[in-house]
Amino acid sequence: MLIALVASAHGTAEMASAQESGIRLPDSSVYAGELENGLFSGLGILTWRDGARYEGGFKDGLKHGEGSYTLRNGWSYTGTFKDGLAHGRGTEKSPAGGYYTGEFVDGLPHGEGVEGFADAGVYKGSFQHGLAHGWGRYEGPGGLVYEGEYHLGLWQGHGALTYQNGDIYMGEFLQGLPHGKGALVQAEGDEYEGEFREGQFHGRGTYTFSDGKVLRGQFREGMFVEQE
User: Fold this and answer.
1) What is the DSSP letter of 170?
2) Are the beta carbons of 104 and 84 closer than 8 angstroms?
3) Contact 57/68 with Cβ under 8 angstroms?
4) Which of 134, 133, 192, 183 lies closest to 160, judged by CA?
5) What are phi and psi of 143, to 5 degrees?
6) Distance CA 216, CA 206 (A)
7) What are phi and psi of 9, to 5 degrees?
8) Euclidean distance between the first and final Cα of the chain, in Å?
């Protein structure tokens, strides 16, 4: 679900053979900027023959400090680098219209951040190694809203989900689906409280119709099968 931060061969700059700016390297990339001991160090601009471009700080031949890195396809990252990778706070944008703004560690979203998707959905919360992980809130198209725990990019743990049709589920999730104990309040007024499995009523539960009628007992794959 997350934008993948490119960590390519562009991360490492080759040793320059001359202590001057405007250096053309063997791979046809061109560097203009400061040098120290034959390595890019300080402020500079590095452009590659494939259209990639980096402008910002360098240290020991690697992107380091504040900078902006863009690819020919429209992908970009602007923010802090460390040892050639995005590290610290920054903003990544994808050609499809997605973005991520927040904390990075070793080239990946890690910590607190906000991710926007091409379909206008937005996630705000915790990330770990590039994936939503921990507590967060997702607002999707058509009124879909989830707030709760994430595990490796999926809804997992305790949370609350408002569906696009107005139904509301509160309870446990596993791998993106209601699973375990929870309660579903449907937009037309019916309610179910009990056990879920893979998004369906499954196990012991109570279904209350909007007119007050109650079914209490065992459910299997969304169907009532045994009265208590």
Assistant:
1) E
2) no
3) no
4) 183
5) 95, 5
6) 4
7) -65, -15
8) 42
Q: What angle do CA 121, 188, 171 make, to 5 degrees?
A: 55
**Whole-number mean pLDDT of the chain?**
93
Using a CB cutoff of 8 Å and minimum separation of 24, what contacts does 204-210 make? none
The answer to whether 130 and 110 have CB atoms below 8 angstroms apart is yes
Place of tokens 């696009």: 164
Q: Is 96 helix (H, G, I), strand (E, B) or coil?
A: coil
Helix (H, G, I), strand (E, B) or coil at 142: helix
| Range with the poorest average pLDDT among 22-31, 129-138, 155-164, 171-180 | 22-31
Interatomic CA distance for residues 72 and 52, integer angstroms: 6
Q: Give the pLDDT score at 21.
A: 52
Give CA–CA dist 157/180, Å, rounded: 9
Contacts of 154 (CB under 8 A, 6+ apart): 173, 175, 176
Asked if 37 and 50 count as a contact pair (C-beta separation under 8 A), the reply is: no
Return the structure tokens found at 60: 């020991």
Model pTM? 0.87
Tokens of 93: 């944008």
Residue 97 has pLDDT above 50, yes or no: yes
- C-alpha neighbours within 13 Å on the C-beta side of residue 32: 6
